[in-house]
């Protein structure tokens, strides 16, 4: 008999991490694989942030445990950041810091979900939300959004999905995988709906500063006092500051939920590595010029690679507004090459074109594939050239 819990038996491994590991394994075997799998900036963490980390090690500060929910100085830095980019300030008891936004999301679900509680998740969505809700015995209620509405959920759709068990709704704007951004009006309508029905809003704003071509990010929590009280913001330094390996995420919300999340952290991971906390203070409050340089590099990549991808036979692509993903619909491409399953199509691209993408299936989108453009332009251009050659063969 299996020794595994039903929880683990029912879980999927992270599709993004699995795709990236598979590409790395093939590369290690000597294959010339171009990997556009991971949403991970390819830049080295800016020097001022590295220096702050090194200093904290050398002056002995990084040697010790910190408060489980994060250093008070880091919470103050998060407050400075919130004031600057969200337009409102928060107290220390409204902030919790943890080991990556991914674990912060899990801590949120573990804090608010009782068995059977429902979380509305508009899809296509990032690969970890659904499994995390299941891990705490919640029920993920996925709502399929349509490409003609830029993959954005409407209040009508939310209302149709609402039951007396609905506890929270998840919003991720700019979105992984679609790159779409909700407008102020759309967010206002969703926020008012959530307030009216006392449904928590989990706002995963991790791509909020990665927006391009004049598009703007609006934080739902900044729209009104009532909406803010209903919202828990999740954010982190991984994407904006090119710090995926450092593993810092944080949440901002009402003290009751935040202290619940702090309890989860105190009984699981304890504090986020102290060295990362010191580095994050510098990231959030130090010189921001390198951040803008990285944003501009992503913008240039998007503007270069998008028209090339549009030329690939059978690929239909909506131009993303933020994050660093392209999410083409490949239904026609699959028909042209005789595939009915996007996983098989993605595997064929890997085996024959030696380009690793992530299957849309993991995002709840069986007609799409995801390309991350968080990699250098030469690799991107060559990858699209190979995909095109594969389609034209
Ligand atoms: N949310 C979204 C939408 C993401 O794409 C990611 C990717 N890593 C995360 C959260 C988690 O980020 P991290 O754990 O690196 O802070
Ligand atoms: N979020 C990134 C991605 O979607 C990193 C991998 C992960 O955590 O899923 O590729």
From TrEMBL:
<dbReference type="GO" id="GO:0006520">
    <property type="term" value="P:amino acid metabolic process"/>
</dbReference>
<feature type="domain" description="Aminotransferase class I/classII large">
    <location>
        <begin position="32"/>
        <end position="387"/>
    </location>
</feature>
<protein>
    <recommendedName>
        <fullName>Aminotransferase</fullName>
        <ecNumber>2.6.1.-</ecNumber>
    </recommendedName>
</protein>
<dbReference type="Pfam" id="PF00155">
    <property type="entry name" value="Aminotran_1_2"/>
</dbReference>
<keyword id="KW-0663">Pyridoxal phosphate</keyword>
<dbReference type="InterPro" id="IPR015421">
    <property type="entry name" value="PyrdxlP-dep_Trfase_major"/>
</dbReference>
<dbReference type="GO" id="GO:0030170">
    <property type="term" value="F:pyridoxal phosphate binding"/>
</dbReference>
<dbReference type="InterPro" id="IPR004838">
    <property type="entry name" value="NHTrfase_class1_PyrdxlP-BS"/>
</dbReference>
<keyword id="KW-0808">Transferase</keyword>
<dbReference type="InterPro" id="IPR050596">
    <property type="entry name" value="AspAT/PAT-like"/>
</dbReference>
<comment type="similarity">
    <text>Belongs to the class-I pyridoxal-phosphate-dependent aminotransferase family.</text>
</comment>
<keyword id="KW-0032">Aminotransferase</keyword>
<dbReference type="InterPro" id="IPR015424">
    <property type="entry name" value="PyrdxlP-dep_Trfase"/>
</dbReference>
<dbReference type="GO" id="GO:0008483">
    <property type="term" value="F:transaminase activity"/>
</dbReference>
<dbReference type="InterPro" id="IPR004839">
    <property type="entry name" value="Aminotransferase_I/II_large"/>
</dbReference>
<dbReference type="InterPro" id="IPR015422">
    <property type="entry name" value="PyrdxlP-dep_Trfase_small"/>
</dbReference>
């Amino acid at each position: 008999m299996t020794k595994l819990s039903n929880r683990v038996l029912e879980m999927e491994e992270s599709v993004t991490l699995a795709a990236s590991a598979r590409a790395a394994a093939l590369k290690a075997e000597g294959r010339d694989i171009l990997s556009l799998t991971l949403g991970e900036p390819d830049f080295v963490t800016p020097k001022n942030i590295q220096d702050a980390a090194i200093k904290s090690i050398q002056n002995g500060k990084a040697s010790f445990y910190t408060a489980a929910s994060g250093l008070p100085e880091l919470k103050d830095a998060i407050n400075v950041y919130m004031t600057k980019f969200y337009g409102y300030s928060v107290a220390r008891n409204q902030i919790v810091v943890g080991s990556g936004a991914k674990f912060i999301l899990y801590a949120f679900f573990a804090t608010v979900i009782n068995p059977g509680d429902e979380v509305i998740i508009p899809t296509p969505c990032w690969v970890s939300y659904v499994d995390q809700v299941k891990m705490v015995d919640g029920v993920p209620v996925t709502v399929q959004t349509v490409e003609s509405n830029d993959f954005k959920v409407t209040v009508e759709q939310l209302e149709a999905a609402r039951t007396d068990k609905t506890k929270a709704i998840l919003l991720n704007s700019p979105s992984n995988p679609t790159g779409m951004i909700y407008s102020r009006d759309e967010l206002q309508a969703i926020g008012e709906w959530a307030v009216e029905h006392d449904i928590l809003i989990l706002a995963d704003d991790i791509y909020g500063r990665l927006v391009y071509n004049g598009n703007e990010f609006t934080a739902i929590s900044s729209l009104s006092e009532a909406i803010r009280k209903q919202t828990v913001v999740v954010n982190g330094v991984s994407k904006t500051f090119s710090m995926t390996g450092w593993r810092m995420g944080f949440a901002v919300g009402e003290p009751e939920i935040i202290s619940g999340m702090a309890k989860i952290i105190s009984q699981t991971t304890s504090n986020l590595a102290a060295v990362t906390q010191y580095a994050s203070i510098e990231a959030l409050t130090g010189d921001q010029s390198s951040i803008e340089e990285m944003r501009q590099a992503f913008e240039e990549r998007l503007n270069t690679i998008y028209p090339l991808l549009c030329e690939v036979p059978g690929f239909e692509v909506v131009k993303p507004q933020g994050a660093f993903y392209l999410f083409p619909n490949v239904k026609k491409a699959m028909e042209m090459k005789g595939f009915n399953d996007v996983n098989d199509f993605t595997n064929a691209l890997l085996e024959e074109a030696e380009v690793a993408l992530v299957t849309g299936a993991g995002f709840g989108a069986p007609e799409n594939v995801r390309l991350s453009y968080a990699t250098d332009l030469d690799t991107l251009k060559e990858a699209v050239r190979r995909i095109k050659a594969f389609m034209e063969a």
